[in-house]
Amino acid sequence: MNAPATLEPSPVPTPAERAAAPRRARILAVTSGKGGVGKTFVSANLAAALARRGQKVLVLDADLGLANLDVVLNLHPKITLHDVFTGKATLDQALLPAPGGFHVLLAGSGLVEYSRLTPEVRDKLLEVIGQVAPRFDVVLLDTGAGISDVVLYTVSLADEVLVVVTPEPTAMTDAYATVKVLAAQQQRRELNVVVNQAPRGGDGRGVAAQLQQVIDRFVVPAVGAKVTLKLLGDVPLDAAVREAVKKRQLVVETMPGTAAAQALSALAGKLVG
Ligand SMILES: Nc1ncnc2c1ncn2[C@@H]1O[C@H](COP(=O)(O)OP(=O)(O)O)[C@@H](O)[C@H]1O
Ligand SMILES: [Mg+2]
Fold it and tell me: Number of structural domains, the chain?
């Protein structure tokens, strides 16, 4: 009797294997050098725009000590990530639906103990992200600004980085510093950039080109590799944004015709093709 032919393993997953494999979200860290550039605004509205494109999206408020995603979304959570961290609540109790068709994990504000990277914060954040990743298509981590260890650790948990910057020299200098640290410490070689609060059309390209120039000159020789900024797009400085934030609304939901809303919708399209 002939020995059964050895089956070559298939080079690609079979449809059955694909269906059985746990889904895993694309994890994107929305970060910046300078504060107040629009990370939370971009995270929330990008999430809504991605949800409109059929993506299952979670935004995690990773600005753990000075959280304000809840304010932008007009949510008044009784349970936050901190309750999950301390074991007072389960992850499912903290996962809340947000206006805009996505989910959120909110944090608290004025909590000094969460402004530093303690072993507890490290472990819990890692655990929570591990638990949510199979349940969503996209997870946005809305981080704090700067290069503190808690921000850098949060960014290190993401597959992709989205740096929010404005055309102001201070924001650009700080964005450069962020990229430099991420390239050196995390071996990031490609980073997405969103130029927010752009006064004129086309500002994004100029800002990204200027940043790229400084990176080529100082970061590339230091890390010994190419570091590329990918301009995802620009979001115009739009009075409608201030108005929406004041009313605690999402521009993509309530003012879809505005320049800012359309730019955010285009960003979502670029992210998910
Ligand atoms: N594209 C924009 N046009 C006008 N104002 C904006 C724009 N983006 C952000 N802002 C204003 O900047 C403020 C700070 O944004 P926020 O998302 O809280 O920044 P961050 O999370 O980076 O600290 C918002 O409350 C809003 O008033
Ligand atoms: Mg913020």
Answer: 1
